[in-house]
Specification:
This protein is an alpha+beta fold. The chain has 7 helices and 10 strands. The chain has one domain: 2-Layer Sandwich (Beta Polymerase, domain 2). The longest helix has 16 residues. It is globular, with a radius of gyration of 16 Å. The N terminus and C terminus are likely disordered.
Length: 205
Amino acid sequence: MGTAGNESPVPATAVLAAAADDVIASAAATGITLRLLGGIAVFQLAPSARMPPLARPYHDFDVVVPARQGQSAAEIFRRLGYAEDAHFNALHGAQRMVFTASSGFVVDLLVGTFQMCHRLHLGRDLPTSGSTIHPADLLLTKLQIVQMPRAGSATPKRAGWSAASRSFGGRWTPSRNRCGGGREPGSASAFPGTSCRKRSAETVT
């Protein structure tokens, strides 16, 4: 996900994956459940994401925590030496917090829910083992990204099901998560300063 601003250096995927594992393990040691979502989660789950044509560099990683563990999870990041965006976190910390590693990559900490076009209550049902959210939930988060219309086209499109499902080898279906608050593409999102349409310009590659 990341935040707007100056571009940060692109870390090696192995560095991001190791950092994510460290944060998740440190949280687990104190009874906090953190799980990956986003591109690094796809990389962890899907071998096809590590090979052409789907392989790509990753700039950051994203994690989700149950709603009542947000501040405890934030303390884990501080203890591990991550710098926080104090202003952003003070304003939006009930839903999302942002931290930056000393090497420059950014981590988004989602508290309980993921919301773009629809709200996914990921924090209610995180896996008890592994490092990622449920694969079906991960697919749902990716299917909410919409593409900007090409010149001459008036209607934005959802990121193709075939493209998303290729990363998961066609093995997963999106039936398990409870979605609510359906929003039209381009409508306001609970993610501060974002919308379904705006997010597509930042994330679809």
